[in-house]
Design a protein that fits this description.
With about 150 residues, this protein is mainly alpha-helical. The chain has 8 helices and 3 strands; from the N terminus they run E-H-H-H-H-H-E-H-E-H-H.
Length: about 150
């Protein structure tokens, strides 16, 4: 599973290179209790490490790797992610059967924080796929909760 992985450099917002960690947190994180831990850690991030990660992403060419993918791969994107744009529909249609993309329609850059129940359920379903099965059967589901009477 890859979350918010840009397929090309053009899918990354250039603001990622211009801001310090605290400014990036302000841009990428919502102001909800679910984001509190990330807010506390953001000022501790090393700006050089962020830039190095972005430089490494520039040398990564994901599309050719995806086209030859034999192992099940799930790409997760968020509709409201200001930093990473989801791949174009044409590119997604050309992906092999072992690659599937899920879009979180109500999430920003961190779907695991914005919609943790859905994200965790999807992750569990992906990790539970029987060997050799395509991830194309996966879909977003609400987390099942037991009712107490």
């Amino acid at each position: 599973m890859a979350v918010g992985m840009p397929v090309s450099q053009a899918d990354l917002d250039p603001r990622l290179r211009l801001n310090q960690p605290a400014e990036l947190a302000d841009w990428l994180l919502g102001r909800s209790p679910a984001h509190e831990a990330a807010w506390m850690e953001a000022p501790k991030a090393d700006a050089r490490a962020i830039l190095l990660s972005l430089t490494d992403l520039e040398s990564l060419h994901l599309k050719p790797g995806l086209m030859g993918m034999l192992t099940p791969c799930l790409l997760v994107y968020a509709q409201n992610d200001p930093a990473v744009r989801a791949p174009e529909v044409e590119m997604l249609a050309a992906l092999p059967q072992q690659v599937h993309t899920i879009l979180f329609e109500h999430s920003g850059h961190f779907p695991m924080l914005d919609e943790p129940s859905k994200f965790n359920r999807l992750l569990n379903d992906f990790l539970s796929l029987p060997s050799g099965e395509s991830p194309r059967q996966l879909q977003l589901k609400e987390e099942w909760k037991r009712r107490v009477r």
